[in-house]
Amino acid sequence: QVQLVESGGEQVQAGGSLRLSCAASGRTVNGYAMAWFRQAPGKEREFVAALSWNGIDTYYSDSVKGRFTVSRDNAKNTVYLQMNSLKPEDTAVYYCAADQFGNGSERLYEYEYWGQGTQVTVSS
């Protein structure tokens, strides 16, 4: 079993930056695709960014490409989401997810493990 705990969410002004962290425990997530999804009030959960299981390939939604960067620190068993140039429409609960041997899918059902989420609020 893998447990995922997100942190780093807070309220920021538009144009600001945040770095979210996803700490994994229970087993190493080396060899797992890791992804970030988000869910705004009244909306479905949507894909944000992902890293393939080998950490080589990264994927981003069009809405965050060029502003967000996903990375991992295998020694710390942690995945990060650096978010720059934040916009009010980035406001959501951000979730971390893990998929063993995955390639960084955009599909929610591919991911076996999920964190509880961290709230990001961007004010204009």
What would your notes on this structure say?
The protein has 124 residues and is mostly beta strands. The chain is 0% helix and 50% strand. The protein is built from no helices and 11 strands. The protein has strands at residues 3-7, 11-13, 18-25, 32-39, 46-51, 58-60, 68-73, 78-83, 92-100, 113-114, 118-123. The strands form 2 sheets. Strands 2, 4, 5, 6, 9, 10 and 11 form a 7-stranded mixed β-sheet that branches. A 4-stranded antiparallel β-sheet has the order 1-3-8-7, with no helix packed on it. The radius of gyration is 13 Å and the shape is globular. The termini are far apart. The mean pLDDT is 96.
Summarize the structure.
By secondary structure, the chain is mostly beta strands.
Mean pLDDT: 96
Distance between the termini: 40 Å
Structural class: mainly beta
Q: Give the helix level as a range of percent.
A: under 10%
Sequence stretches where pLDDT stays below 50 over 5 or more residues: none
Task: Specify Rg, calculated over alpha carbons.
Answer: 13 Å
Number of helices: 0
Largest sheet descriptor: 7 strands, mixed
Bulk shape: globular
